[in-house]
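Notes, Module 5: Reading structure tokens.

Key idea: the token line is not a picture. It is a compressed description, and you learn to read it the same way you learned to read a sequence, by spotting repeated patterns. We will look at two proteins. The first is printed below with its tokens.
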Amino acid sequence: MAAKSELEESLILQPRFDTDGLVTCVATDAASGEVLMVAHMNAESLARTVASGDAWYYSRSRRALWRKGESSGHTQRVVELRVDCDQDAVWIRVVQEGPGACHTGRRSCFYRTAPIGQSGATVTLEFRDADQAFDPGAVYKPK
């Protein structure tokens, strides 16, 4: 592995995958900056994303590659891909095609907020920008 200073200044993509072979990826709307989703990439999904310009991810639950929108039609076209300083996180700025990025039918996966200042064993979340943009039952048909 490259020395820390070499990694931080390198112009070579050298992702530092975790022990499961994954790196965290944050997808934001290229125009508004809105955080749409957080997912994971393995070496193959990252390579496919770079090569194609389409957002590819790795599903930990299904243990499979997936191209965003392959079942919903709500694709993500990557306009910029960045890595953080030590290359253990990826940020993609995307054009979100279709009304939403979240499998719950919402534009963003981040539709709840935890009020700052709450204490106790249970923190009650509040919905923010939580209206459904599409009907997930109509989009994600059982296979």
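Here is the second protein, with the sequence above and the tokens below, as before.
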Amino acid sequence: MIEKTVRMSLLFDFYGQLLTQRQQEFFKLYYDDDLSLGEIASQYGVSRQAVYDILKRSSQALEEFESKLQLVERFQRRQSALAQAMAEIDAAMEALSPLEAMGDVVQRLARARAALVEVEAAGVEA
């Protein structure tokens, strides 16, 4: 269930603006605020079934957007590649740290890692 919630939240972050206003409201209440179907239904004066149907259609729409655009998949691949590159740079810096003559190389690696961190942060904010 947690994996589904995380996936839906990620899909919503990328494609939520493509849903109707009501779908967005119900989605946020259910996934972000952790309200039950009954609580949402009571708040909006509709049936639990209506809330369920709206959430189901919203989830299906988000999955359909992802299947066509694959923005989340590309984002996750990029994040994984960045993490791998940073791990490799960290390992290289660790291996070079005892060699004083290699100080310039270590500094360059540190700057490269800092640049990757900036790229990663910009990707998360986008």
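Summary for the second protein:
- Residues 77 and 83 are 10 Å apart (CA to CA).
- Helices lie at 2-15, 21-32, 37-44, 48-69, 71-96, 103-125.
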